């Protein structure tokens, strides 16, 4: 079976859903393919940054988002040796409409975007539909082949294919695009513990000790923990077993001693193979890569989703008109990379510097916490906390909804 659409988006994550929604609001016929039957996948990035919150407002979706379960993170704090804390990043200092990071399950955000998309007549979301191959003719990508969960196969021909299928992108690989990879000294393990009434709900709380590092992320009914250790040690960590892991966590975060038993086995600890890479060229004729398919980010700073969403907004802004006119070409696709490459390189450069100067030495046991000069500086000049808050929460080039995509709030 062969079908046709103007734009086929491979992957229903934040970048794919935002791009699909915005293009549909421009009147572009767009089909989003998502290989899973639903969005209920845990231990994904669940941060919605100030710039993304403002985008949702511009799209008329802020009130709907506000009804979703979420917590507001207003600060990034670091514990000091004397038992106090230092505020490294203070989102409350930002002069933006939403001076905080909203922590909400990613499936709820994706469902919200999907519902908004379905209100547009040119939007189609195909769940349980996995891209299996690219269609090519005359040296140009002309769409995709797909397979459904029932085993049915077909083709969707399209003027443009956009790869939003993540850091292991099949579309990118089949297009022959290979990323430049950067050395990364860390991996991450995600788990959750119960949240108690006296837990501080409004701050991201890093904890550091020689050989490991953790960030506690407040959620509405539990605490999510990103445990950072040396790259390549997942097998060793699992071989030691859950009792040893519980002891490590309790030593690193003493207030968790009475709740680490919530980790029943190492199956409750999810491993993330941390990568930092970047395509030199984000496109071939007929295909564009954005988000993690174009640039995998470290979890340091939690900015990957924000950058992916910004890519999607830029792509929709630049490509809506040529897609409507049937004139989209390689120069249009190159313009997306040209617009987004500076913030991408800047964030990755900062992350790599943090890997070398802080996180790497810490997980290698050469440092027990943040550099003392840094702590002294932010203690002496607390107003500097706006700088990391801006880099994390807003970024160097925040994108705003194009005029064709803006809507009044949907009545509740």
From TrEMBL:
Molecular-function GO terms, alphabetical: FAD binding; oxidoreductase activity
Source domain of life: Bacteria
Residue ranges of domain FAD-binding in the record: 5-327
Pfam short name (any one): FAD_binding_3
Keywords attached to this entry: Oxidoreductase
Name this polypeptide is given: 2-polyprenyl-6-methoxyphenol hydroxylase
Originating organism: Geodermatophilus siccatus
């Amino acid at each position: 079976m062969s079908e046709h659409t103007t734009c086929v988006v491979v992957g229903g994550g934040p970048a794919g859903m935002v791009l699909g929604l915005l293009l549909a609001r421009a009147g572009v016929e767009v089909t989003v393919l998502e290989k899973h039957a639903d969005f209920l996948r845990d231990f994904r990035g669940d941060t919605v940054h100030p710039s993304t919150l403002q985008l949702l407002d511009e799209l008329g979706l802020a009130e709907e988002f506000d009804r979703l379960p979420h917590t507001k993170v207003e600060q990034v704090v670091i514990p000091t040796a004397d038992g106090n804390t230092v505020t490294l990043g203070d989102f409350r200092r930002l002069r933006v409409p939403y001076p905080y990071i909203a922590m909400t399950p990613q499936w709820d955000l994706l469902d919200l975007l999907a519902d908004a998309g379905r209100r547009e007549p040119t939007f189609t979301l195909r769940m349980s539909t996995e891209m299996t191959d690219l269609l090519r003719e005359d040296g140009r990508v002309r769409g995709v082949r797909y397979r459904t969960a029932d085993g049915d196969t077909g083709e969707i021909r399209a003027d443009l294919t956009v790869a939003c299928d993540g850091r292991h992108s099949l579309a990118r690989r089949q297009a022959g695009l290979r990323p430049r990879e950067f050395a990364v000294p860390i991996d991450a393990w995600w788990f959750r513990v119960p949240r108690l009434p006296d837990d501080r709900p409004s701050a991201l709380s890093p904890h550091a000790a020689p050989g490991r590092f953790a960030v506690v992320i407040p959620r509405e009914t539990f605490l999510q923990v990103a445990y950072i250790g040396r790259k390549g040690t997942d097998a060793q960590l699992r071989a030691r077993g859950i009792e040893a892991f519980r002891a490590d966590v309790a030593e690193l975060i003493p207030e968790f001693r009475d709740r680490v038993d919530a980790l029943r086995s190492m199956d409750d600890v999810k491993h993330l193979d941390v990568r930092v890479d970047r395509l030199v060229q984000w496109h071939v004729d007929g295909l564009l890569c954005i988000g993690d398919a174009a640039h995998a980010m470290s979890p340091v700073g939690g900015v990957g989703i924000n950058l992916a969403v910004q890519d999607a907004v830029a792509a929709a802004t630049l490509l809506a008109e040529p897609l409507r006119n049937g004139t989209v070409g390689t120069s249009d696709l190159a313009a997306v990379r040209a617009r987004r490459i500076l913030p991408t390189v800047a964030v990755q450069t900062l992350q790599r510097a943090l890997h070398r100067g802080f996180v790497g030495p810490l997980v290698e046991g050469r440092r027990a916490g943040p550099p003392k000069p840094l702590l002294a500086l932010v203690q002496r000049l607390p107003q500097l906390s706006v700088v990391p808050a801006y880099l994390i929460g807003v970024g160097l080039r925040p994108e705003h909804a194009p005029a064709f995509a803006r809507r009044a709030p949907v009545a509740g």
